[in-house]
Design goal:
Layout: H1 7-14, H2 32-37
Length: 51
């Protein structure tokens, strides 16, 4: 199966939102293995700060 991500999930990953909060495991085909293989889930691209 080909993992599918929603644009909002990709945006959330780029903003450093946790994969559990983005509901990645709930997708029809879990994309976490692909994202880990590409190095996307290892570290956030930016860090969100508390206001």
């Amino acid at each position: 199966m080909l993992p599918m991500l929603y644009f909002t999930q990709l945006l959330g990953l780029a903003l450093g939102i946790a994969e559990e909060d983005l509901r990645l495991p709930n997708n029809f085909c879990d994309p976490r293995a692909l994202l880990e293989a590409k190095g996307i889930l290892e570290k956030p691209l930016c860090v969100m700060r508390e206001a």
